[in-house]
Amino acid sequence: MKLTTGEGGVVVSQHKGLPQRPVVQVFKAFFGQNVDYDITDLDPVKHTTLFIQNTVE
Questions:
Q1: Over residues 2-21, mean pLDDT
Q2: Cα(15)–Cα(42) distance, integer angstroms
C-alpha cells in the first residue's frame, strides 16, 4: 500500500474500534556501501493526518 506521505508499507494490526485506521509498518531502504533498512510502525490513530492512498491486491 501507499500512504499519503508517499511511503509504502503493510498492515500489521488493526484497532478493534477503528478498523479503518490500521497500524502500518513502513520499510525504508538506504543504499550505500551496505544496504540498511529502517522499519517503523505508524499508528494512524496517533498520526491523524496519515491515510492510506492506495492498495495493491
A1: 90
A2: 13
